[in-house]
Protein backbone atom coordinates (compact mmCIF):
# COMPACT_ATOMS: atom_id res chain seq x y z
CA UNK A 1 0.00 0.00 0.00
CA UNK A 2 1.44 3.38 -1.00
CA UNK A 3 1.71 6.43 1.21
CA UNK A 4 -0.89 8.18 -0.96
CA UNK A 5 -3.33 5.28 -0.51
CA UNK A 6 -2.79 5.37 3.25
CA UNK A 7 -3.43 9.13 3.41
CA UNK A 8 -6.52 8.89 1.18
CA UNK A 9 -7.85 5.89 3.10
CA UNK A 10 -7.58 7.64 6.45
CA UNK A 11 -10.93 8.92 7.74
CA UNK A 12 -11.33 12.71 7.87
CA UNK A 13 -11.98 12.62 11.61
CA UNK A 14 -8.41 11.36 12.15
CA UNK A 15 -6.96 14.45 10.46
CA UNK A 16 -9.30 16.73 12.43
CA UNK A 17 -8.20 15.03 15.64
CA UNK A 18 -4.53 15.47 14.66
CA UNK A 19 -5.01 19.20 14.04
CA UNK A 20 -6.82 19.61 17.38
CA UNK A 21 -4.19 17.64 19.30
CA UNK A 22 -1.34 19.51 17.61
CA UNK A 23 -2.97 22.83 18.54
CA UNK A 24 -3.11 21.69 22.18
CA UNK A 25 0.50 20.49 22.10
CA UNK A 26 1.75 23.69 20.48
CA UNK A 27 -0.12 25.84 23.00
CA UNK A 28 1.53 23.81 25.79
CA UNK A 29 4.94 24.95 24.49
CA UNK A 30 4.07 28.52 25.47
CA UNK A 31 2.65 27.78 28.89
CA UNK A 32 0.08 30.09 30.40
CA UNK A 33 -3.01 30.15 32.54
CA UNK A 34 -5.76 27.73 31.62
CA UNK A 35 -9.12 26.85 33.20
CA UNK A 36 -8.92 23.47 34.94
CA UNK A 37 -11.76 22.12 32.79
CA UNK A 38 -9.85 22.82 29.58
CA UNK A 39 -6.93 20.75 30.88
CA UNK A 40 -9.29 17.77 31.07
CA UNK A 41 -9.91 17.66 27.31
CA UNK A 42 -6.68 15.92 26.24
CA UNK A 43 -6.88 13.15 28.88
CA UNK A 44 -10.53 12.59 27.96
CA UNK A 45 -9.76 12.53 24.22
CA UNK A 46 -7.00 9.93 24.64
CA UNK A 47 -9.01 7.78 27.05
CA UNK A 48 -12.11 7.80 24.84
CA UNK A 49 -10.04 7.18 21.69
CA UNK A 50 -8.40 4.13 23.28
CA UNK A 51 -11.53 2.68 24.79
CA UNK A 52 -13.62 3.18 21.64
CA UNK A 53 -10.92 1.46 19.61
CA UNK A 54 -10.92 -1.50 22.01
CA UNK A 55 -14.70 -1.76 21.79
CA UNK A 56 -14.89 -1.40 18.01
CA UNK A 57 -11.83 -3.46 17.03
CA UNK A 58 -13.05 -6.98 16.28
CA UNK A 59 -9.66 -8.45 17.16
CA UNK A 60 -9.58 -6.82 20.62
CA UNK A 61 -10.41 -9.05 23.53
CA UNK A 62 -9.59 -9.35 27.18
CA UNK A 63 -5.79 -9.29 26.66
CA UNK A 64 -5.97 -5.93 24.87
CA UNK A 65 -8.30 -4.57 27.56
CA UNK A 66 -5.92 -5.76 30.29
CA UNK A 67 -3.00 -4.17 28.43
CA UNK A 68 -4.93 -0.88 28.31
CA UNK A 69 -5.70 -1.00 32.05
CA UNK A 70 -2.09 -1.88 32.96
CA UNK A 71 -0.79 0.83 30.64
CA UNK A 72 -3.20 3.38 32.13
CA UNK A 73 -2.05 2.48 35.64
CA UNK A 74 1.61 2.85 34.70
CA UNK A 75 0.83 6.05 32.81
CA UNK A 76 -0.97 7.53 35.83
CA UNK A 77 2.17 7.05 37.91
CA UNK A 78 4.42 8.56 35.22
CA UNK A 79 2.03 11.46 34.58
CA UNK A 80 1.77 12.28 38.27
CA UNK A 81 5.57 12.18 38.56
CA UNK A 82 5.96 14.50 35.54
CA UNK A 83 3.41 16.96 36.94
CA UNK A 84 5.01 17.01 40.37
CA UNK A 85 8.40 17.77 38.81
CA UNK A 86 7.01 20.62 36.69
CA UNK A 87 6.35 24.17 37.80
CA UNK A 88 2.71 25.13 38.05
CA UNK A 89 0.41 27.08 40.31
CA UNK A 90 -3.32 27.09 40.86
CA UNK A 91 -5.79 29.87 41.45
CA UNK A 92 -8.57 28.34 43.53
CA UNK A 93 -10.80 31.39 43.17
CA UNK A 94 -10.77 31.40 39.37
CA UNK A 95 -10.23 27.61 39.02
CA UNK A 96 -7.24 28.08 36.74
CA UNK A 97 -3.83 26.46 36.49
CA UNK A 98 -0.74 28.37 35.41
CA UNK A 99 1.71 26.07 33.68
CA UNK A 100 5.25 26.68 32.51
CA UNK A 101 5.82 25.99 28.82
CA UNK A 102 6.73 22.38 28.10
CA UNK A 103 7.42 20.19 25.09
CA UNK A 104 6.25 17.07 26.96
CA UNK A 105 2.58 17.26 25.86
CA UNK A 106 3.51 17.86 22.21
CA UNK A 107 6.02 14.99 22.22
CA UNK A 108 3.48 12.64 23.82
CA UNK A 109 0.83 13.69 21.31
CA UNK A 110 3.13 13.15 18.33
CA UNK A 111 4.45 9.79 19.54
CA UNK A 112 0.98 8.57 20.38
CA UNK A 113 -0.59 9.71 17.14
CA UNK A 114 2.24 8.22 15.07
CA UNK A 115 2.15 4.88 16.88
CA UNK A 116 -1.65 4.60 16.80
CA UNK A 117 -1.70 5.66 13.15
CA UNK A 118 0.94 3.04 12.27
CA UNK A 119 -0.90 0.35 14.24
CA UNK A 120 -4.18 1.36 12.60
CA UNK A 121 -2.63 1.03 9.15
CA UNK A 122 -1.12 -2.34 10.05
CA UNK A 123 -4.48 -3.61 11.29
CA UNK A 124 -6.27 -2.24 8.22
CA UNK A 125 -3.95 -3.78 5.63
CA UNK A 126 -3.28 -7.08 7.39
CA UNK A 127 -5.19 -10.22 6.59
CA UNK A 128 -7.87 -10.87 9.16
CA UNK A 129 -6.13 -10.21 12.45
CA UNK A 130 -6.42 -12.98 15.01
CA UNK A 131 -8.04 -12.01 18.28
CA UNK A 132 -5.58 -10.25 20.56
CA UNK A 133 -2.75 -10.27 18.06
CA UNK A 134 0.39 -8.49 19.14
CA UNK A 135 -0.71 -5.37 17.24
CA UNK A 136 -3.99 -5.10 19.10
CA UNK A 137 -2.42 -5.72 22.51
CA UNK A 138 0.39 -3.22 21.76
CA UNK A 139 -2.19 -0.66 20.65
CA UNK A 140 -4.10 -1.16 23.90
CA UNK A 141 -0.91 -0.80 25.94
CA UNK A 142 0.26 2.37 24.17
CA UNK A 143 -3.19 3.87 24.31
CA UNK A 144 -3.50 3.14 28.03
CA UNK A 145 -0.05 4.52 28.85
CA UNK A 146 -0.68 7.82 27.11
CA UNK A 147 -4.20 8.22 28.48
CA UNK A 148 -2.76 7.48 31.92
CA UNK A 149 0.07 10.01 31.58
CA UNK A 150 -2.31 12.82 30.66
CA UNK A 151 -4.77 11.72 33.35
CA UNK A 152 -2.00 11.52 35.97
CA UNK A 153 -0.90 15.06 35.19
CA UNK A 154 -4.50 16.28 35.37
CA UNK A 155 -5.04 14.46 38.67
CA UNK A 156 -2.07 16.25 40.26
CA UNK A 157 -3.45 19.61 39.08
CA UNK A 158 -6.85 18.73 40.57
CA UNK A 159 -5.32 17.62 43.85
CA UNK A 160 -3.57 20.97 44.18
CA UNK A 161 -7.03 22.58 44.29
CA UNK A 162 -7.92 20.85 47.54
CA UNK A 163 -8.05 23.37 50.30
CA UNK A 164 -5.16 22.91 52.65
CA UNK A 165 -5.95 24.02 56.17
CA UNK A 166 -3.47 26.47 57.62
CA UNK A 167 -1.71 25.40 60.79
CA UNK A 168 -2.18 27.60 63.79
CA UNK A 169 1.08 29.00 65.19
CA UNK A 170 0.73 26.94 68.39
CA UNK A 171 -0.31 23.66 66.73
CA UNK A 172 2.06 20.80 67.39
CA UNK A 173 2.43 18.11 64.81
TrEMBL record:
Sequence intervals crossing the membrane: 36-55, 61-84, 96-115, 135-156
Protein's UniProt keywords contain Nucleotide-binding: no
One Pfam family, short name: DUF6622
Keywords for this protein: Membrane, Transmembrane, Transmembrane helix
Stored InterPro entries: DUF6622 (IPR046730)
Protein's UniProt name: DUF1453 domain-containing protein
Naturally occurring in which organism (per UniProt): Paraburkholderia rhizosphaerae
Amino acid sequence: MSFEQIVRGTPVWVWILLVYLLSRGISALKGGTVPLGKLATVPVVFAVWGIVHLVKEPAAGWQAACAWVLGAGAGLIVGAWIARKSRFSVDREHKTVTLAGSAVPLILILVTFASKFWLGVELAVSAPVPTDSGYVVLDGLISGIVAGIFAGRFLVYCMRFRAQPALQPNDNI
